[in-house]
Structures are given as structure tokens and as C-alpha cells.
Specification:
mainly alpha, Rna Polymerase Sigma Factor, Chain: A, Arc Repressor Mutant, subunit A, 0% strand, globular
Length: 172
Amino acid sequence: MHQIERPADQIEQWYTSFYPILLKMGKVFRLPEEEIKDGIHQFFLELLEKGVQNDAIVNPRAYLVTAFHRKLIDRCRLLIRKGNESGNIMMDQAAVTPSIQEILIQLQTSSERIDKMREVFQRLPPRCKSVLSLKFYKGMSTEQIALYTGLSKRSVYNNLFEGIKLLRKECR
């Protein structure tokens, strides 16, 4: 009998899986470790309270990392506004909010990189293209890709490796 997974169970799995990643992110912001841990707990409680629809989130890692990163930025902005240098926070206002010119330069550079990547991606062998697409655009695990495509896990790993290697080589 298939057991129905409740949203709380999924969020608990995410908490277990992504806690170390989120903790490292907080350390980059040089916040006190206890404050980071409290922030992570609060973040997941808020997800539960909001009733986040787990099935609507295609890539939980990207979703959680982005959302938590925004929380950290908001927290640092609040501390800066208060003039509170608690712990060893070394973020200044310029680091938190880039200038319009910096944003435009980043967008142009990103756009050029994306165009180049798209061009190189189209030239990849079909199997590499398929496996990379499933991995990075659909957020599937290697096991899921193997089941979906009928390839062995080893073939999936090999195609991922080859595809990434070719992308790196061509984009340098």
C-alpha cells in the first residue's frame, strides 16, 4: 500500500537534506552560528505555516537556497540599518545592493554566457543533451534519469560527465 506523503514530511526531509548547505551559506554572511541555526529553523517553520505546495517545486535545492539567501540578505540589511555590528558582520551596504551599472554589466555578461552555452549545448551528442536536460532543467536524480531513459546508472554518469566536459571545453 502506497503511503501518502504529507507536506510536513517533505519539508522535514528538506530540512535534513539541506541544513548543512544553508548553514554554510549563513557562515558566508559572517553571522553568529547560533543566529544562523535559529534562522534556518525559523525559515522551515515559515514554509510549514505558508503551506508551501511541494509538488509545485520542481527543484527544491534551488528554491530553498534562493529563498534562504534572500532571508540572509534581509537580515543583514536590518542589522546595517540598526547600526548593529553583532558578531563579526562585514557586509556593507554596497555589498548588499549592487549599483544599476553593475547589474546591467552582470545581465549583459550573463546573457552572452547563456547564448554561448545554448549554442554549445545544441552541438552536444543527443544522449548527453537529453541526460543534461533531465538533470539540470528537470532536477532529476541520476537514478530517476536511469529509470526514465532506460539507461544504466553508469551510462547516465558517463553522459553527464562527457556533456559537462564538452561544455566546459567549448565555453573556455
